[in-house]
Amino acid sequence: MRFRKLLVVAAVASLMQVYLVGAQEAAPRERPQRPERGQGTERPQRMEREGQRFDPQQMNERYLTRVKETLGVSDEEWQVLKPKVEKVRVAQMNIQRRGGGMRMGQRSEGNIDAGISPLEKAYRDLQAVLGNKDASAKDIATKLAALREARKKSEDELAAAKKQLKELLTQRQEAQLVLMGLLD
Q: Which of 66, 104, 132, 169 is in Cβ range 3.0-4.6 Å of 173 for a Cys bridge?
């Protein structure tokens, strides 16, 4: 239980860092002029920033660039470390998002379960059984056990990914990644 709490805190801290980096790089936006009192009751429409839409790939690249700079590694060293860092990060997000899966609007050739992790599938299966008022206790127990097993497997995969990453780091680099929330 304590491990899960630490994992959630680490993932939240990691996401906050990504958000803060993005906020620092974003250009300041102008606030719309508000009408003086008595000049109308309509609210000003939210201004849309030109050319600035949420791009997860761009956000991920900024994060990885920040990790590289923080670790102070060469391009050659980064080519070895980057896949390990990405593997840890994906595993953390999968656990945090109950297994991750596809984002809204993504589908694969009619199969709504394509592209989701086993943890997310087990979570959805349990939700579906609980949504059925006629589900038996045995069905619920089976889906609950499957969810617990998928969660355990995801946590084991995260632990293995972290171990592989740690093996490549100096003590200073490991400490920096602990502060960034990638390692414990």
A: 169
What are 34's two structure tokens?
């508000």
> For residue 108, what is the DSSP state?
B
Taking phi over 0 as left and psi of -120 to 50 as alpha, with beta for the rest, 32 belongs to: beta
Cα–Cα distance for residue pair 165/67, rounded to 1 Å:
13
SS3 124: helix
* CA separation for the pair 122, 99 (Å, rounded): 9
Angle between helices 137-166 and 118-131 (to 10 degrees): 160
Q: Residue 140 has which token pair?
A: 């619920």
Domain-wise residue ranges, the chain? 2-25+56-100+112-180
Largest CA distance in the chain: 67
Q: H-type helices in 26-136, by residue range?
A: 56-71, 75-96, 118-131
Helices (H) and strands (E) in the chain, counts: 6, 0
* Tokens matching residue 127: 């939700």
Q: How far apart are CA 14 and CA 71, in angstroms?
A: 15
Q: Which of 85, 65, 96, 56 is nearest to 168 (CA)?
A: 85
Q: What is the pLDDT of residues 22-72, one digit of tens each?
A: 655 555 555 555 555 555 444 444 444 555 677 888 888 999 999 999 999
